[in-house]
Amino acid sequence: DDGNGGVDGNDTNEGEAGGNGNGGEAESDGNSADSGNDGSNGDNGNGSEENEDDGTVSGTEKTEGGDSEEGGDGDSGEDGEGGEGGEDAEGETGADTFLMPTATGTVYTAETLTYSFLSSNFYNISSSTVVYESELNGSLLEVPLTLSEITEEPQILIYHTHSHEFFADSDTSNLETGIVGVGNYLAELLEGYGYSVLHLTDQFDYVDGVLDRSKAYTYAGVRLKEVLAEYPTIEVMIDLHRDGVDDGLHLVTEINGKSTAMIMFFNGMSRTTSGNISYLPNTNLEANLAFSLQLKVKAEAYYPGFTRKNYVKPYRYNLHLLEKALLIEAGAQTNTFEEVKNAMEPLAVLLHIQLSGLE
């Protein structure tokens, strides 16, 4: 998310924290780093949020089926650059033959993923929250998180709490050139794998003609509950963002011969260092953590260098609404639209492997 707002404030409803006048952000800290190369803009907000009715512009898109692409793998370096990998091993999707990528990276087992290893190598845990050893360990790999079945009704929901997030070469007057356009492409790819996808294009951060992120998570939460009630078949929820980083940082690798933005999975603990946040309960916390970790582990195996460390913050960011709920930071403001769009191809592959139970 944009570096103009940090997650330091309190949200009295849905876990959004205020920024410096431009709204709260589910973004990484200025002190965070992936192997020393991934510092993002610092947190500096202290706003608060109240529950209000949704006054946003709404829109939903039921995407058409699209062609899918399976990328290779990159050997990651310290600066986020990598090479290409190959593909083999076929598996079946609901309608087509799926070509599994080759596992050219490290294949981790539950036994190797101790709290010490994960907290040092797979996670950036904000100093404003606490994650206990009993919550973060290899047992998360054993949590069953596949789709129950393929149906014609929507199964996957893609949305954007911050729809007005753009890239280095975006036309800021055209949402299709920003994160919303990236979401369109991810939806098309997943449809190509046989899933039914609903892409919600509501502008939760644009109210009465003004960009305002101070209540975006609250507005999103209201709308999400409506959508989930209307489509009870939805099992997966993806809040797709782009991160805000130092202007000199370019989060890019190479996958299948394409310049590809790196991505980051994001979790909220509903907890500060003082204890659990009582007004932000999350009965799906274990499943949320397991879902993002399982995808991270698959990324390390099939696309090494593609994902940054998973990031953990205090609040809940509407992830409590489903077990299989994700907040993903795709690239940053320093990436091009094409780089971030390219990242949706390996992400779609990882999601398909995860949801279909392929290994």
Description of the molecule:
The chain is α/β, with parallel strands linked by helices. Helix content is 21%, strand content 21%. It has five helices and 19 strands. It has helices at 115-121, 179-192, 216-230, 285-302, 337-356, and strands spanning 10-11, 48-49, 56-57, 60-62, 87-92, 97-101, 123-125, 156-159, 197-200, 203-207, 210-211, 236-243, 252-255, 258-261, 263-268, 271-272, 275-276, 310-313, 324-332. The strands form six sheets. It has an eight-stranded mixed beta sheet. A three-stranded antiparallel beta sheet has the order 3-10-11, covered by helices on one side. α2 (179-192) packs parallel to α5 and α4 (285-302) packs across α5 (337-356). The longest helix has 20 residues, at 337-356. It is globular. The two termini are 32 Å apart.
